Amino acid sequence: MRVRLELRWHQRARHTIPQIFQEVVRRQPEHLALVDAGSGMCWTFAQLDAYSNAVANLFCQLGYTPGDVVAIFLEGRPEFVGLWLGLAKAGMEAVLLNVNLRREPLVFCLGVSGAKALVFGRELAAVVAEVSGQLGKSLVKFCSGDLGPEGVLPDTQLLDPLLKEASTAPLAQPPGKGMDDRLLYIYTSGTTGLPKAAIVVHSSPCTPCPCRYYRIAAFVHHSYSMQAADVLYDCLPLYHSAGNIIGVGQCLIYGLTVVLRKKFSASRFWDDCDKYNCTVVQYIGEICRYLLKQPVSEAEGRHRVRLAVGNGLRPAIWEEFTERFGVRQVGEFYGATECNCSIANMDGKVGSCGFNSRILPNVYPIRLVKVNEDTMELLRDAQGLCIPCQAGEPGLLVGQINQQDPLRRFDGYISESATSRKITHSVFRKGDSAYLSGDVLVMDELGYMYFRDRSGDTFRWRGENVSTTEVEGVLSRLLGQTDVAVYGVAVPGVEGKAGMAAIADPHGQLSPNALYQELQKVLAPYARPIFLRLLPQVDTTGTFKIQKTRLQHEGFDPRQTSDRLFFLDLKQGHYLPLDQGVYTRICSGAFSL
Length: 593
Known about the structure:
long-chain fatty acid transmembrane transporter activity, alpha/beta, about 25% strand, nucleotide-binding, transmembrane helix, lipid transport
């Protein structure tokens, strides 16, 4: 309700994100805006404003016009924020590229965005040099920072000298763009394939409000009662919505100081929070588990952090995290960059990712609807409408789409086919449209929702549904918070999918059979992994989500990997090394599964 009221006020005032930021600058020009924890560099709001004005003036002078797309490819630091904010001031659209992209995926992301220019950091010069020949001669390249001994890449201009010569005054003629124009492209993390570029816009077609960026930042701000005096610690990637909108958005919209670290460091986390007097921290994916793996330090008892906000905190370690580190509130929320059905756990209900009223459900029209959990196909009643779930029933989270409502619109992806796959019709009533989240949740009798599984993160074995997240949590806890990925693999001639666990074992010290003895105590027989894969490290995305696509594709075939593989022989009651002979016997049915 508070977000809606703020949006209506900004609609009447015809504000955009840069204009809202200008008001913050006017109020507190010398207040700290951004701090780079790595270098110690501090930017006031006046300095951030001046840098972004220089960016806006420079690109206008170079002939770029409103609507042109510029890609940003550099690690998280204040310049990153100044670059996309300056482009927005000039009416241009920034594409935020994942700094972990290399070769074909990097070329792909640049290609689908339609970028006319690329700004890359000096730390990524070698990466750009690798693909320079595939980027096309029309793409203009700028390097932020000194290239050092390598020298300038062909057809590359140094950005910093150009910015020093540019005016730091506001644009003489701000762009006359419509308020439905695009602000940013933020790529999804690509846990299941090539990234998709989600669109972040200023507003809906009929209302000139800074919708999606503002909505996401304001939703978190008010859900957890953040104040202008708070200092937020943001060690998440700025190419992702969690770091750039939920984190940096608190600075640009509400005037908070945001402390940036370009890469999460478990060993430096609490030292940074203590040094900069942080009161709010962000987490995502497995960050909380990584912090629990660290030895006890003095800094973890000295900090002033009252709130940890993010998503992906496993229920199994929730209370351990809050008790050890003395964090009074966990602000777990659910929401993707592009979704219209975000929810928040505002009162610390352990394990819950959000809440929606069961008494007044139409205030925020989202629903859990029944699906076939094997195929994720929507189940419908005799009238062709989706079937709402009752309390305790798992269902797919959907959000009703209303393109005229800034809180309920869905702007989709650059790819029209990717957008259409996320929309279904006749959900709440005949002919309506709804966004398909792809996530299965469960709501209790009070309206609290609990994350169940990502589509594809359950598999059926021995007539039972196995939750990969549950098994991952158990294994990780038994192994001292080690990285674990659990997934189902098909076995020829066998119904369902057998569980397989990929476990990080960089020093080759894990004993499969000692692990099995412990698993028998805590996991049902059908949930115990049939196959183990011990590898140096488990791949994660830049936002600390486990990547399983390659692991699932390679399965338990020893020809696909040099990692150590094991097979659970149920008759002998222990794991056997899985070589080509054992693999052949499994595929021929010689082993009873």
